[in-house]
Design a protein that fits this description.
mainly beta; YceI family protein; 8% helix; eleven-stranded antiparallel sheet
Length: 175
C-alpha cells in the first residue's frame, strides 16, 4: 500500500460561488482558495482505497470575483472573507473534514462517497475524481442547506450567495 500526503504545496483547493436573487447581477461570482489543508490518499495498486481531507477554514482567501457592477476591491475581499467565516461558524468549528466511506473506480474516473463534517454537522458527500499517472483532479458540489448554513445575503435577500458551492482540488503526485 502506498500513501500520498498532500497539501497546498501539492496543488490547489478552490471554492467557486454563484449569486442568486432578483439583484444577482450586482453580485460577484467568487473564486476562493483554501491556503491551509491536508489530504491523505491511500492506494492499493492503481486505485485509491481511502481518502481524508482536512481544511482549515480560517485559511480562506478571496482570489477574485467575476461579474458584479464594479470590480472587486481589496476592502470588499476582506469583508467577504469575514462574512464567509461567520456563515461557516469557523470560530466554533475551525475545520471541514471529508472521509471516504466507499470508492468506485471506472477507468480513470473515481467516485468517492464519504462523510463531510462542516459547521458541526455531518452529511454524505460525493466527490468525482479523475486520476492520471501524476495527478488527481476532484470536484464536488456542497450545499449550504445540507449543513444548516444560511448563505450570505444582502439587499433584504434580493442578492445572495447560491446554496451550492463548487469545490475543486487539483494535486500532483508527491515526489
Amino acid at each position: 500500500m502506498t500513501q500520498w500526503n498532500l497539501g497546498p504545496d501539492s496543488g490547489e483547493l478552490l471554492l467557486r460561488t454563484g449569486v442568486t436573487g432578483s439583484a444577482s447581477r450586482m453580485g460577484h461570482r467568487l473564486t476562493i482558495v483554501m491556503r491551509s489543508w491536508h489530504a491523505t490518499v491511500e492506494w492499493e495498486g492503481e486505485a485509491p482505497s481511502a481518502v481524508e481531507v482536512t481544511v482549515d477554514l480560517d485559511s480562506l482567501d478571496v482570489l477574485r470575483g467575476e461579474g458584479g457592477m464594479t470590480p472587486l476591491s481589496g476592502a470588499e475581499k476582506v469583508l467577504i472573507r469575514s462574512n464567509a467565516l461567520k456563515t461557516l461558524r469557523a470560530k466554533k468549528f475551525p475545520q471541514a473534514v471529508f472521509r471516504s466511506t466507499s470508492i468506485e473506480r471506472s477507468g480513470s474516473a473515481v467516485r468517492l462517497v464519504g462523510v463531510l463534517e462542516l459547521a458541526g454537522r455531518s452529511g454524505e458527500q460525493t466527490v468525482e475524481v479523475e486520476v492520471s499517472d501524476d495527478s488527481l483532479r476532484g470536484a464536488a458540489a456542497v450545499r449550504h442547506s445540507d449543513f444548516g448554513l444560511k448563505p450570505y445575503s444582502m439587499l433584504m435577500g434580493a442578492m445572495k450567495v447560491a446554496d451550492e458551492v463548487e469545490v475543486s482540488l487539483v494535486v500532483t503526485r508527491p515526489a
